[in-house]
Protein backbone atom coordinates (compact mmCIF):
# COMPACT_ATOMS: atom_id res chain seq x y z
CA UNK A 1 0.00 0.00 0.00
CA UNK A 2 1.33 3.44 -0.90
CA UNK A 3 2.22 5.59 2.07
CA UNK A 4 -0.15 8.59 2.34
CA UNK A 5 2.81 10.84 3.12
CA UNK A 6 5.95 9.75 1.28
CA UNK A 7 9.09 11.83 1.59
CA UNK A 8 8.45 15.30 0.23
CA UNK A 9 11.15 17.42 -1.34
CA UNK A 10 11.31 20.83 -2.93
CA UNK A 11 13.34 19.86 -6.02
CA UNK A 12 11.38 17.27 -8.06
CA UNK A 13 13.07 14.01 -9.05
CA UNK A 14 12.41 14.70 -12.74
CA UNK A 15 14.56 17.85 -12.53
CA UNK A 16 17.36 15.81 -10.98
CA UNK A 17 17.02 13.21 -13.74
CA UNK A 18 17.28 15.99 -16.34
CA UNK A 19 20.46 17.22 -14.64
CA UNK A 20 21.94 13.72 -14.70
CA UNK A 21 21.19 13.43 -18.41
CA UNK A 22 22.23 16.91 -19.49
CA UNK A 23 24.99 17.92 -17.11
CA UNK A 24 28.68 17.18 -16.97
CA UNK A 25 30.24 14.46 -14.82
CA UNK A 26 30.17 16.58 -11.66
CA UNK A 27 26.51 17.56 -12.24
CA UNK A 28 25.63 13.92 -12.86
CA UNK A 29 27.34 12.75 -9.68
CA UNK A 30 25.54 15.34 -7.55
CA UNK A 31 22.13 14.59 -9.12
CA UNK A 32 22.47 10.82 -8.75
CA UNK A 33 23.66 11.24 -5.15
CA UNK A 34 20.61 13.38 -4.37
CA UNK A 35 18.26 10.88 -6.03
CA UNK A 36 19.80 8.08 -3.96
CA UNK A 37 19.16 10.05 -0.76
CA UNK A 38 15.55 10.67 -1.84
CA UNK A 39 14.98 6.95 -2.41
CA UNK A 40 16.42 6.04 0.99
CA UNK A 41 14.32 8.63 2.79
CA UNK A 42 11.14 7.51 1.00
CA UNK A 43 11.73 3.96 2.17
CA UNK A 44 12.27 5.06 5.78
CA UNK A 45 9.19 7.30 5.66
CA UNK A 46 7.01 4.48 4.30
CA UNK A 47 8.17 2.15 7.07
CA UNK A 48 7.42 4.75 9.74
CA UNK A 49 3.89 5.32 8.40
CA UNK A 50 3.31 1.56 8.24
CA UNK A 51 4.26 1.23 11.92
CA UNK A 52 1.92 4.08 12.86
CA UNK A 53 -0.89 2.50 10.90
CA UNK A 54 -0.32 -0.98 12.39
CA UNK A 55 -0.35 0.44 15.91
CA UNK A 56 -3.52 2.41 15.24
CA UNK A 57 -1.77 5.70 15.91
CA UNK A 58 -3.23 8.85 14.36
CA UNK A 59 -0.75 10.88 12.35
CA UNK A 60 -1.35 13.79 14.70
CA UNK A 61 -0.64 12.03 17.98
CA UNK A 62 -2.16 13.73 21.00
CA UNK A 63 0.45 15.93 22.60
CA UNK A 64 -1.69 17.34 25.37
CA UNK A 65 -2.54 20.96 25.92
CA UNK A 66 0.51 23.19 26.13
CA UNK A 67 1.04 26.90 26.36
CA UNK A 68 2.16 27.88 22.85
CA UNK A 69 5.90 28.42 22.70
CA UNK A 70 8.45 28.02 19.96
CA UNK A 71 10.92 25.15 20.29
CA UNK A 72 13.64 24.73 17.66
CA UNK A 73 16.58 22.35 17.41
CA UNK A 74 19.14 22.22 14.61
CA UNK A 75 21.40 19.20 14.09
CA UNK A 76 24.55 19.01 11.97
CA UNK A 77 24.94 15.87 9.87
CA UNK A 78 28.41 17.00 8.69
CA UNK A 79 27.68 15.67 5.15
CA UNK A 80 26.46 12.38 6.59
CA UNK A 81 22.88 11.10 6.56
CA UNK A 82 22.22 10.57 10.27
CA UNK A 83 18.90 12.28 11.05
CA UNK A 84 19.71 11.96 14.75
CA UNK A 85 22.95 13.91 14.47
CA UNK A 86 24.09 16.00 17.47
CA UNK A 87 22.19 19.21 18.20
CA UNK A 88 24.33 22.28 17.47
CA UNK A 89 21.76 24.98 18.23
CA UNK A 90 18.58 24.91 20.30
CA UNK A 91 15.97 27.35 21.51
CA UNK A 92 17.60 30.11 23.53
CA UNK A 93 21.03 29.70 21.96
CA UNK A 94 22.66 32.51 20.03
CA UNK A 95 24.12 32.36 16.54
CA UNK A 96 26.92 29.82 16.17
CA UNK A 97 28.44 31.34 13.03
CA UNK A 98 27.58 28.49 10.69
CA UNK A 99 25.43 29.95 7.89
CA UNK A 100 23.29 26.86 7.29
CA UNK A 101 22.58 26.34 11.00
CA UNK A 102 21.69 29.96 11.65
CA UNK A 103 19.59 30.31 8.48
CA UNK A 104 17.57 27.19 9.27
CA UNK A 105 17.06 28.32 12.88
CA UNK A 106 15.89 31.77 11.79
CA UNK A 107 13.59 30.42 9.05
CA UNK A 108 12.04 27.98 11.52
CA UNK A 109 11.31 30.92 13.79
CA UNK A 110 9.72 33.02 11.06
CA UNK A 111 7.58 30.12 9.88
CA UNK A 112 6.45 29.24 13.41
CA UNK A 113 5.50 32.88 14.03
CA UNK A 114 3.52 33.03 10.78
CA UNK A 115 1.44 29.98 11.65
CA UNK A 116 0.86 31.21 15.22
CA UNK A 117 0.29 34.92 14.63
CA UNK A 118 -1.63 34.63 11.34
CA UNK A 119 -3.43 31.29 11.64
CA UNK A 120 -3.43 30.79 15.44
CA UNK A 121 -1.68 27.45 14.95
CA UNK A 122 0.62 26.05 17.63
CA UNK A 123 3.47 24.67 15.51
CA UNK A 124 3.24 22.12 12.71
CA UNK A 125 0.91 19.68 14.46
CA UNK A 126 -1.03 22.44 16.29
CA UNK A 127 0.09 20.85 19.55
CA UNK A 128 3.50 22.41 20.12
CA UNK A 129 5.65 20.11 18.02
CA UNK A 130 9.38 20.83 18.18
CA UNK A 131 10.77 22.09 14.87
CA UNK A 132 13.68 19.74 14.23
CA UNK A 133 16.10 20.37 11.37
CA UNK A 134 19.22 18.68 10.07
CA UNK A 135 21.71 20.81 8.11
CA UNK A 136 24.69 19.75 5.96
CA UNK A 137 22.69 16.62 5.15
CA UNK A 138 24.55 14.40 2.70
CA UNK A 139 27.33 15.35 0.33
CA UNK A 140 26.39 17.93 -2.33
CA UNK A 141 22.69 17.11 -1.93
CA UNK A 142 20.64 19.39 -4.19
CA UNK A 143 17.44 19.24 -2.16
CA UNK A 144 15.56 19.87 1.07
CA UNK A 145 13.14 17.33 2.52
CA UNK A 146 10.29 16.94 4.99
CA UNK A 147 10.48 13.34 6.20
CA UNK A 148 7.36 13.40 8.33
CA UNK A 149 9.12 14.37 11.54
CA UNK A 150 11.89 16.80 10.68
CA UNK A 151 13.46 18.89 7.94
CA UNK A 152 16.63 17.88 6.16
CA UNK A 153 18.69 20.47 4.29
CA UNK A 154 21.28 19.65 1.64
CA UNK A 155 24.12 22.05 0.93
CA UNK A 156 23.65 21.90 -2.85
CA UNK A 157 26.33 21.05 -5.36
CA UNK A 158 27.20 24.72 -5.81
CA UNK A 159 26.89 24.43 -9.59
CA UNK A 160 23.12 24.33 -10.05
CA UNK A 161 21.83 24.75 -6.52
CA UNK A 162 23.30 26.51 -3.51
CA UNK A 163 22.66 25.53 0.10
CA UNK A 164 18.95 25.00 0.59
CA UNK A 165 18.83 26.87 3.91
CA UNK A 166 19.23 30.19 2.08
CA UNK A 167 15.55 30.24 1.10
CA UNK A 168 12.77 31.07 3.55
CA UNK A 169 10.14 30.02 0.99
CA UNK A 170 11.78 26.58 0.66
CA UNK A 171 11.84 26.10 4.43
CA UNK A 172 8.22 27.23 4.83
CA UNK A 173 7.20 25.03 1.89
CA UNK A 174 8.65 21.93 3.52
CA UNK A 175 7.24 22.71 6.96
CA UNK A 176 3.96 23.34 5.16
CA UNK A 177 3.99 19.69 4.11
CA UNK A 178 3.97 18.92 7.82
CA UNK A 179 0.85 21.03 8.34
CA UNK A 180 -0.81 19.26 5.43
CA UNK A 181 0.21 15.91 6.89
CA UNK A 182 -1.49 16.68 10.19
CA UNK A 183 -4.55 18.50 8.83
CA UNK A 184 -5.22 16.58 5.61
CA UNK A 185 -3.73 14.50 4.49
CA UNK A 186 -3.91 14.83 0.73
CA UNK A 187 -2.63 11.63 -0.85
CA UNK A 188 0.65 12.30 -2.62
CA UNK A 189 -0.41 11.13 -6.07
CA UNK A 190 -2.05 12.73 -9.09
CA UNK A 191 -4.25 15.78 -8.55
CA UNK A 192 -4.51 15.33 -4.77
CA UNK A 193 -0.71 15.21 -4.65
CA UNK A 194 -0.52 18.33 -6.81
CA UNK A 195 -2.86 20.05 -4.34
CA UNK A 196 -0.51 18.93 -1.56
CA UNK A 197 2.40 20.59 -3.39
CA UNK A 198 0.27 23.65 -4.19
CA UNK A 199 -0.67 24.29 -0.57
CA UNK A 200 2.98 23.87 0.48
CA UNK A 201 3.99 26.39 -2.20
CA UNK A 202 1.26 28.78 -1.04
CA UNK A 203 2.52 28.55 2.54
CA UNK A 204 6.06 29.13 1.30
CA UNK A 205 5.06 32.21 -0.68
CA UNK A 206 2.87 33.63 2.08
CA UNK A 207 5.53 33.25 4.78
CA UNK A 208 8.03 34.94 2.45
CA UNK A 209 5.60 37.80 1.81
CA UNK A 210 4.59 38.08 5.47
CA UNK A 211 8.22 38.38 6.57
CA UNK A 212 8.59 41.32 4.17
CA UNK A 213 5.10 42.76 4.72
CA UNK A 214 4.47 42.62 0.97
CA UNK A 215 1.10 42.95 -0.70
CA UNK A 216 0.01 40.49 -3.35
CA UNK A 217 0.81 43.12 -5.99
CA UNK A 218 4.31 43.77 -4.60
CA UNK A 219 5.31 40.12 -4.21
CA UNK A 220 7.27 38.16 -6.81
CA UNK A 221 5.36 34.90 -6.07
CA UNK A 222 8.53 32.84 -6.48
CA UNK A 223 9.47 29.73 -4.52
CA UNK A 224 13.16 29.02 -4.07
CA UNK A 225 14.56 32.13 -5.75
CA UNK A 226 17.65 32.01 -3.54
CA UNK A 227 18.74 28.44 -4.24
CA UNK A 228 19.63 28.67 -7.94
CA UNK A 229 23.40 28.93 -8.35
CA UNK A 230 25.07 31.74 -10.22
CA UNK A 231 24.94 31.20 -13.98
CA UNK A 232 21.76 29.10 -13.97
CA UNK A 233 19.20 30.46 -16.43
CA UNK A 234 16.19 30.97 -14.23
CA UNK A 235 14.64 33.05 -11.49
CA UNK A 236 13.46 30.37 -9.04
CA UNK A 237 12.35 26.78 -8.70
CA UNK A 238 8.70 27.68 -9.28
CA UNK A 239 6.60 30.73 -10.09
CA UNK A 240 3.04 30.83 -8.77
CA UNK A 241 2.32 33.90 -10.87
CA UNK A 242 3.64 32.45 -14.13
CA UNK A 243 3.91 28.67 -13.93
CA UNK A 244 6.25 27.30 -16.58
CA UNK A 245 8.58 30.31 -16.59
CA UNK A 246 10.74 29.72 -13.50
CA UNK A 247 13.77 28.32 -15.33
CA UNK A 248 15.01 27.27 -18.75
CA UNK A 249 18.57 26.02 -18.49
CA UNK A 250 20.61 23.63 -20.69
CA UNK A 251 21.44 21.45 -17.67
CA UNK A 252 18.40 22.01 -15.49
CA UNK A 253 15.90 21.67 -18.32
CA UNK A 254 12.75 23.77 -18.71
CA UNK A 255 10.08 24.45 -16.12
CA UNK A 256 7.27 22.06 -17.07
CA UNK A 257 4.46 23.50 -14.99
CA UNK A 258 1.17 24.24 -16.77
CA UNK A 259 -1.00 27.18 -15.77
CA UNK A 260 -4.32 25.89 -17.14
CA UNK A 261 -6.29 22.64 -17.18
CA UNK A 262 -6.05 22.44 -20.97
CA UNK A 263 -2.33 21.81 -20.49
CA UNK A 264 -2.64 19.30 -17.64
CA UNK A 265 0.27 16.85 -17.86
CA UNK A 266 -0.66 13.17 -17.74
CA UNK A 267 2.36 11.22 -16.54
CA UNK A 268 3.35 8.33 -14.33
CA UNK A 269 6.50 10.19 -13.28
CA UNK A 270 6.69 12.55 -10.30
CA UNK A 271 3.95 10.63 -8.47
CA UNK A 272 1.58 11.46 -11.31
CA UNK A 273 2.89 14.99 -11.84
CA UNK A 274 2.54 16.38 -8.31
CA UNK A 275 5.27 19.00 -8.78
CA UNK A 276 4.27 19.65 -12.39
CA UNK A 277 0.49 20.08 -12.25
CA UNK A 278 0.62 22.05 -8.99
CA UNK A 279 1.18 25.01 -11.31
CA UNK A 280 -2.57 25.03 -12.04
CA UNK A 281 -3.83 25.55 -8.45
CA UNK A 282 -0.80 27.79 -7.81
CA UNK A 283 -1.95 30.12 -10.56
CA UNK A 284 -5.53 29.97 -9.23
CA UNK A 285 -4.32 31.07 -5.78
CA UNK A 286 -2.33 33.91 -7.32
CA UNK A 287 -5.45 35.02 -9.23
CA UNK A 288 -7.55 34.92 -6.04
CA UNK A 289 -5.04 36.83 -3.93
CA UNK A 290 -4.46 39.40 -6.67
CA UNK A 291 -8.18 40.01 -7.19
CA UNK A 292 -8.68 40.55 -3.46
CA UNK A 293 -5.65 42.81 -3.19
CA UNK A 294 -3.87 43.63 0.03
CA UNK A 295 -1.90 40.89 1.77
CA UNK A 296 -2.34 37.35 0.54
CA UNK A 297 -2.55 35.75 3.98
CA UNK A 298 -5.37 37.98 5.23
CA UNK A 299 -8.18 36.62 3.05
CA UNK A 300 -6.96 34.24 0.34
CA UNK A 301 -4.71 32.48 2.86
CA UNK A 302 -7.43 32.17 5.49
CA UNK A 303 -9.75 30.62 2.92
CA UNK A 304 -7.09 28.17 1.79
CA UNK A 305 -6.24 27.18 5.36
CA UNK A 306 -9.92 26.63 6.21
CA UNK A 307 -10.27 24.45 3.11
CA UNK A 308 -7.28 22.30 4.10
CA UNK A 309 -8.64 21.70 7.58
CA UNK A 310 -12.25 21.03 6.57
CA UNK A 311 -13.63 17.60 7.42
CA UNK A 312 -15.10 17.24 3.93
CA UNK A 313 -11.73 17.50 2.20
CA UNK A 314 -11.10 14.00 0.91
CA UNK A 315 -7.62 12.43 0.71
CA UNK A 316 -8.01 11.84 -3.04
CA UNK A 317 -9.65 15.20 -3.85
CA UNK A 318 -9.15 16.43 -7.41
CA UNK A 319 -8.87 20.07 -8.48
CA UNK A 320 -12.59 20.57 -9.04
CA UNK A 321 -13.58 19.03 -5.71
CA UNK A 322 -11.01 21.16 -3.90
CA UNK A 323 -12.11 24.29 -5.78
CA UNK A 324 -15.75 23.75 -4.83
CA UNK A 325 -14.85 23.35 -1.15
CA UNK A 326 -12.54 26.36 -1.42
CA UNK A 327 -15.47 28.41 -2.74
CA UNK A 328 -17.77 27.15 0.00
CA UNK A 329 -15.22 28.14 2.66
CA UNK A 330 -15.01 31.64 1.19
CA UNK A 331 -18.77 31.91 1.50
CA UNK A 332 -18.77 30.67 5.09
CA UNK A 333 -15.97 33.01 6.16
CA UNK A 334 -17.01 36.12 4.27
CA UNK A 335 -20.56 35.54 3.09
CA UNK A 336 -22.24 33.87 0.12
CA UNK A 337 -21.93 36.13 -2.91
CA UNK A 338 -19.19 38.13 -1.21
CA UNK A 339 -16.24 39.68 -3.01
CA UNK A 340 -14.09 36.90 -1.54
CA UNK A 341 -16.37 34.11 -2.77
CA UNK A 342 -16.51 35.66 -6.23
CA UNK A 343 -12.72 35.97 -6.31
CA UNK A 344 -12.34 32.27 -5.51
CA UNK A 345 -14.80 31.25 -8.23
CA UNK A 346 -13.14 33.53 -10.78
CA UNK A 347 -9.63 32.44 -9.78
CA UNK A 348 -10.38 28.78 -10.43
CA UNK A 349 -12.28 29.60 -13.62
CA UNK A 350 -9.17 31.44 -14.88
CA UNK A 351 -7.27 28.14 -14.84
CA UNK A 352 -10.08 26.11 -16.40
CA UNK A 353 -11.63 24.67 -13.22
CA UNK A 354 -15.34 25.46 -13.15
CA UNK A 355 -17.10 25.39 -9.79
UniProtKB/TrEMBL annotation:
Keyword Transit peptide belongs to the record: no
Main localization of the protein described in the UniProt heading: secreted
Cofactor: Zn(2+)
Ranges of residues in domain Peptidase M4: 104-181
Signal peptide: none
Coiled coil: none
Sorted UniProt keywords: Hydrolase, Metal-binding, Metalloprotease, Protease, Secreted, Zinc
Stretches assigned to the Peptidase M4 C-terminal domain: 186-353
Cell compartments where the protein resides: Secreted
Entry superkingdom: Bacteria
E.C. number(s) listed in UniProt: 3.4.24.-
Family of the protein in this entry: Belongs to the peptidase M4 family.
Known role: Extracellular zinc metalloprotease.
Protein name according to UniProt: Neutral metalloproteinase
Organism: Saccharopolyspora taberi
Amino acid sequence: MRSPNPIQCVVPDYVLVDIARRGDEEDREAALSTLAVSTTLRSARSQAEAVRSAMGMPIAAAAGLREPSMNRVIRDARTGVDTGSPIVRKEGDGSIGDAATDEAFDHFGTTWKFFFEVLARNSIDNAGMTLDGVVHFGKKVDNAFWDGDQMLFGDGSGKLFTRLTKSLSVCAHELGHGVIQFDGPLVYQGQSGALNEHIADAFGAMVHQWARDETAAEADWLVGAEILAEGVRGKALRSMKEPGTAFDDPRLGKDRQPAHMKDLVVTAADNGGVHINSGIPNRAFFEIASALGGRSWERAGRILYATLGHEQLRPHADFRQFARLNHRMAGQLFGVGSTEADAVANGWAAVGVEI
